């Protein structure tokens, strides 16, 4: 037996390191997986920042094992040797008459060049890769793009380029705005990009040669045969965390790093999960709401752990039905798939039904104001007549939590929420961390499996008070939209009106349970046993892998302040809850 065994389970042809010429003379490199018979095939294509030649099971063994435990079917009918992280498994697609192309983005894996994720250059490269694939003799000229997270976000960006042969896209877990979606939550800087770049991108940068990974099945050097010095590697990458931290406002840096909804016309399937609060879910919902595409569908699932959902039989069947329609012309998907499909989530973190809907948010939503009774720490149907106030310390993780009475009947919350707060700070700013919580009749908090963190609350929202200015043209009653174009410091102890977006969610609250709204000055912490996140080393405490803990950008002399909340009288702080009645 050879030292390396790359034998697939499925009979397929593999073209390694196919060159894709770019307009500046650089060749990106792609692996092409084809059915054994010569012919022309529709193409499922992905551009990856995680290296096409690094197998999922090798590069992310913990996540791979977790996915297999969640859904053992993932390993059926495949060797698993050709699954690049967050890309489709070619062995699940080749038998159904598709070609699969996975391209190393510029500066990653075996593609040379300057690495700048989500940049205008990268989306142009993606556009050119689509057009290259369309012109190949094994291609029908119909190109669908597919991938998860990083490989999905880049699809929003390339869709705005309107490549002529881009025939359909599946954005599976995809934030859509680098500023609002992940790097700054409500203006509060997240440290996610630092851990992401260090652990997942720099580890596969082109030029590592033998110092990088070697594919355990093929023996191929994942990051190219050339070895660059560390100085050369550093000069070949835009380090995302410092770059983003130097740009806290909506500057030109973000222009092509967010989806251009008016230019996205390609048929699209947007797939998110309720547990992707803080990273993807907002982008998936915005994509369905705002993209100019005439044909678009939204599916929001229960979280199947971090990655399993994309590779389950159910997930692959959904993907294949969509591509059978947009790439092959089979109209079964368009005849049977509702515009919106929601996995309705129970308090036991199970799915009670896969419910078809026609729009998002749901037209029958009863937008209900639950007023903050700050004297009694309660959420009430009517505003208190007299004004009262309550104060908490910024870095005190307890904050304050307002509770509804026990629910008299089963109540479904489904959609985005919004909070209006009247608040003051003892300093020139305040970071507000809002958490939508659920408590059982014994007062024990109910937590849910998130995209990464297995113990998360119902939903979250954030606001840095100095960035409270709204973009009135884009704001909706249930989704305040921050302009992020100016900093407006607070006058200490002056009361301000603040609007906070709470990310979309779904939960059917049983009778006797209570809904809670927590306001604090730090990330939510459930106080239970923590879980470590893979190679990044992040300790998850209920706020997943996108914490807000950079002391340079949250100095204690400003943010470990005294924040006072007001309610009643003329200052009616409230939660706008998306209560959905049964049909």
TrEMBL record:
- Enumerate the transmembrane spans: none
Per the UniProt record, one Pfam family is PepX_C
Concerning InterPro entries, the annotation shows: AB_hydrolase_fold, CocE/Ser_esterase, Galactose-bd-like_sf, Xaa-Pro-like_dom, Xaa-Pro_dipept_C, Xaa-Pro_dipeptidyl-ppase/CocE
Q: Which residues form the Xaa-Pro dipeptidyl-peptidase C-terminal domain?
A: 320-576
The record's listing under SUPFAM superfamilies reads: alpha/beta-Hydrolases, Galactose-binding domain-like
Molecular function via GO: hydrolase activity
Q: Does the keyword Hydrolase apply?
A: yes
Q: Which UniProt keywords apply?
A: Hydrolase
The name of this protein is CocE/NonD family hydrolase
Q: Which organism is it from?
A: Pseudonocardia lutea
């Amino acid at each position: 037996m050879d030292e390396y065994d790359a034998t697939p389970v499925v009979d397929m042809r593999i073209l390694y390191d196919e060159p894709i010429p770019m307009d500046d003379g650089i060749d990106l490199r792609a692996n092409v997986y084809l059915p054994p018979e010569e012919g022309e095939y529709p193409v499922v294509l992905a551009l990856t920042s995680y290296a096409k030649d690094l197998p999922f099971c090798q590069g992310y063994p913990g996540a791979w094992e977790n996915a297999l435990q969640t859904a053992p079917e993932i390993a059926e009918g495949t060797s698993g040797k050709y699954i690049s992280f967050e890309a489709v498994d070619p062995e699940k697609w080749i038998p159904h008459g598709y070609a699969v192309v996975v391209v190393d983005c510029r500066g990653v894996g075996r593609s040379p060049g300057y690495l700048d994720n989500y940049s205008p250059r990268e989306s142009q490269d993606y556009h050119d890769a689509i057009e290259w694939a369309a012109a190949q003799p094994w291609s029908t000229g119909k190109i669908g793009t597919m991938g998860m997270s990083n490989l999905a976000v880049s699809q929003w960006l390339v869709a705005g380029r309107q490549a002529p042969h881009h025939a359909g896209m599946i954005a599976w877990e995809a934030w859509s705005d680098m500023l609002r979606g992940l790097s700054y939550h409500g203006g509060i800087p997240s440290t996610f990009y630092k851990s992401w770049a260090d652990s997942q991108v720099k580890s596969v940068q082109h030029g590592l040669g033998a110092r990088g990974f070697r594919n355990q099945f093929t023996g191929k050097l994942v990051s190219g045969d050339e070895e660059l010095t560390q100085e050369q590697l550093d000069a070949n990458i835009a380090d995302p965390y410092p770059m983003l931290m130097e740009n806290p406002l909506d500057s030109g840096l973000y222009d092509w790093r967010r989806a251009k909804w008016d230019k996205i016309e390609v048929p699209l399937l947007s797939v998110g999960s309720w547990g992707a609060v803080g990273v993807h879910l907002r982008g998936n919902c915005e994509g369905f709401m705002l993209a100019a595409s005439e044909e678009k569908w939204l599916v929001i699932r229960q979280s199947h752990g971090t990655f399993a959902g994309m590779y389950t039989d159910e997930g692959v069947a959904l993907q294949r039905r969509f591509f059978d329609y947009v790439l092959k012309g089979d109209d079964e998907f368009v005849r049977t798939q509702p515009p919106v499909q929601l996995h309705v989530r129970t308090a036991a973190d199970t799915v009670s039904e896969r419910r078809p809907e026609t729009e998002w948010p749901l037209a029958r939503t009863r937008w209900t104001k639950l007023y903050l009774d700050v004297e009694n720490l309660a959420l009430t149907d009517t505003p208190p007549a007299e004004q009262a106030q309550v104060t908490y310390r910024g870095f005190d993780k307890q904050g304050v939590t307002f509770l509804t009475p026990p629910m008299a009947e089963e109540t479904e919350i489904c959609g985005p929420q919004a909070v209006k707060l009247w608040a003051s700070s003892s300093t020139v700013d305040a970071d507000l961390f809002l958490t939508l919580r659920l408590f059982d009749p014994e007062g024990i908090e109910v937590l849910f499996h998130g995209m990464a963190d297995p113990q998360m609350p119902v939903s979250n929202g954030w606001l840095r008070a100095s960035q409270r200015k709204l973009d009135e043209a884009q704001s909706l009653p249930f989704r305040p939209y921050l302009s992020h174009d100016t900093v407006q410091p607070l006058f200490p102890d002056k009361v301000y009106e603040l609007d906070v977006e709470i990310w979309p969610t779904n939960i059917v609250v049983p009778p006797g349970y209570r809904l809670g709204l927590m306001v604090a000055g730090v990330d939510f912490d459930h106080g239970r046993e923590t879980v470590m996140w893979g190679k990044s080393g992040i300790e998850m405490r209920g706020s997943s892998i996108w914490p807000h803990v950079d002391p340079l950008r949250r100095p204690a002399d400003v943010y470990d302040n005294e924040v006072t909340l007001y309610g009643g009288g003329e200052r009616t702080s409230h939660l706008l809850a998306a209560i959905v009645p049964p049909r």
